[in-house]
Amino acid sequence: MEAARSACWRWHHGHCVFFLNYFFIAAAQTLPLASLGLILNIDLDGRAHPEQVNNFYANALLMPAFAKPFLGGFSDWLQRRQYGRKCVLVLALITWCVSLLQASCARTRDSYFVWYTALGLSSSAAEAVLDGVAVELMRSLRLSGSEVQSSAFASRMAGSLIASLFSPLVLHLTGSHYVAVRVCVSMPLVALIVVLLTTYPSASANDPRTIWCNVSRPGPWCLHWWASSSGVHAAALFLFLRSVVPTEDDTFSGFVSTKVDGVWVAICSACSNLGGIAGLLAFQALPDRFTKRLQPAVVLTTLLTVAVGGSVQFFLARCGSSAPWVYATAAFASGAMDTTSFLPMLALCAQCAPKDFEAAGFAMMSLLLDLADQVSARASGLLTQEWLIGSGEGRSWDHLGDLVLACRLGMLLTLPFCVLLRGLDEKSPTLDAQPTDVSLQTPALEEGNRDVLVTADRTPSSS
Length: 463
What we know:
Blueprint: H1 2-9, H2 13-30, H3 33-43, H4 50-60, H5 62-80, H6 86-103, H7 109-140, H8 145-174, H9 177-183, H10 186-196, E1 199-202, H11 208-215, H12 221-228, H13 232-243, H14 249-257, H15 262-284, H16 288-291, H17 294-319, H18 324-352, H19 358-386, H20 400-412, H21 429-432, E2 439-443, E3 451-455
Antiparallel strand pairs: 1-2, 2-3
Helix pairs in contact: 1-15, 2-7, 2-8, 2-10, 3-9, 4-19, 5-7, 5-19, 6-7, 6-10, 7-8, 7-19, 8-9, 8-15, 8-18, 13-19, 15-18, 17-18, 17-20, 18-19
């Protein structure tokens, strides 16, 4: 627990304002999630053919995955040209509200797909901006990627948890999945207000001409970064291989929707987020050899995810219990394990992001995760179709346990590739970079509402 407390105490109160943005963005993502999933599985009859649900999510998230590096690069350019990143986030949240309203009016899978994709684009833009600021803070405070990403992820999980606790109440009071989505528009509106009241980190005191020259070199900046950065190629290959393994999550969600009602589906989502926070706290409490070094962290978290998460999902698939609390408990355990296994991936993305292109670099590494997820979703769909899993005609859930085993054990096949991460901790840009001038500002409510400058404490912790 000492390590967890140390990570929290590093943050100045000004940084908490930034992490508060993570909180509200995650809440805006989570609050309509159960309602959106129920529309696809029940109102649009997706659970009859779960492989179509896998392909729906894969296709809907393809464009946001490719757009995220460009959105991040645009926010980096605005930041280095002294315009700031906030305008990208404001525009994303406005689009977010419009997309939710339109999705709540869609009655065909095609129109629903269009607005679900627009939601993904808005979410990608918001994440690209926040991830860029997080990498700037990582370098200014000279912390490891795991330390910064665990704090950012804690804010996300807290926002997701609060929103998921309200989600069952919204579904219960509205009585309609479509009306519930309309009510959820209030959350990105709240996030928009918080963003407008926050002044994001000011740009470092670099010569804008030098920055512009870096951007305007012959060829895309990412090619120069890729060619000149040692360790990035190995990290990218590992990220792709680690995420390309099929997952049973979407198919299992369809299975759960046949066992419990919509309110309990939302409760299971809340339990999953609560388990994610528990897993995050457990990860932060691990010794430094796990939290600050990628190889041991990946091996440990993967083994736990396969053993604990796989056992829980397999048990439910085989027993087919009708008790809602069983699924809620299982969602807690699986959420905890999945969160711990995902944190090293975020840390790897952060450590590989180049200086002056934090948002774009992080997004480029995340793109590999998203592309691997595309392959993973389609492979999961093929397995689901091959085993005729689902509630449609001629289908059953008898082979769901086999799907769980295949997906979870497949994660073990990626462990030998951990050798690609050897020495990456020592080559991390965070360890070599000089402290940068990254400051956070929050608007004061007194003295004429003037901005109060809050400068980051750049003294490395002795711990």
